[in-house]
Write a structure and sequence with these properties.
The protein is α+β, with helices and mostly antiparallel strands. It folds into two domains: 85 residues, Orthogonal Bundle (GTP Cyclohydrolase I, Chain A, domain 1); 130 residues, GTP Cyclohydrolase I, domain 2, CATH 3.30.1130.10. It contains nine helices and nine strands. A hairpin with a 5-residue loop joins strand 4 and strand 5. Bound molecules: guanosine-5'-triphosphate. Its EC number is 3.5.4.16. InterPro entries: GTP-CH-I_C/QueF, GTP-CH-I_N, GTP_CycHdrlase_I, GTP_CycHdrlase_I_dom.
Length: 229
Amino acid sequence: MNKSAGKLISDIIRERLQKAGADFCANDNIAEYLQEGDLERLQQEVEERVQALLGSLVIDTERDPNTRETAHRIAKMYLQEVFAGRYAPRPKITEFPNTKNLDQVYTVGPVTVRSACSHHFVPVIGQCWIGVIPSGHLIGISKFSRLAQWVFSRPQIQEEATVQLADELERLIHPHGLAVIVRARHECMSWRGVKENDCAMTTSVMRGYFLKNTATRMEFLSLIRDPRG
Ligand SMILES: Nc1nc2c(ncn2[C@@H]2O[C@H](COP(=O)(O)OP(=O)(O)OP(=O)(O)O)[C@@H](O)[C@H]2O)c(=O)[nH]1
């Protein structure tokens, strides 16, 4: 096992988090507690653990060419792709001042969201719509998508992912109104378990004017309605 001074890198990072009193649940971002070179060492450690998992599943990774590199691929996929939102810092978001005092509703979507449920680690794939009534700050529209990708590429439950995205947006742009709707299919419900193929979950967070004012909320809902029906 890949160890430094007799310690696993995951133990070293966990100690830093515990010392700081920081949460490290599946959908928390821990980038602040990583130092240079940690991610490479963590990926190596995860690879070794996945290799042991394959061994416990009684898969002959030496003779089976299809699984020979699987532990490496899974470790890389978790740390650099599907769970990168736990380990990477928040994407850089450029803000612009709202010089013309825009105060009407605008919407962005559908933004594709990809995640994995924290219960089974199988995919959750769906779409997200965001509504904003700006105050003093604006951000470029691609940044809604970048922020959503960052929040969703962690083991998640959809309800918490929706709130996390709303919290990040609120911190960034302090809007007068914020609406986030996510509609996603959970493969833990289709690939396995109850095997419901056509069932989706919809979560919604309404804040500010969208929460207080029914007409504003209805305007958002009508704007995001797919014109194709
Ligand atoms: N609330 C919520 N539940 C989720 C989400 N993703 C997956 N789940 C559900 O979490 C539940 C976990 O239930 P458990 O009873 O612990 O697991 P299980 O025995 O595998 O359950 P089954 O899926 O019913 O076979 C399942 O009902 C999943 O469908 C999510 O984003 N939000």
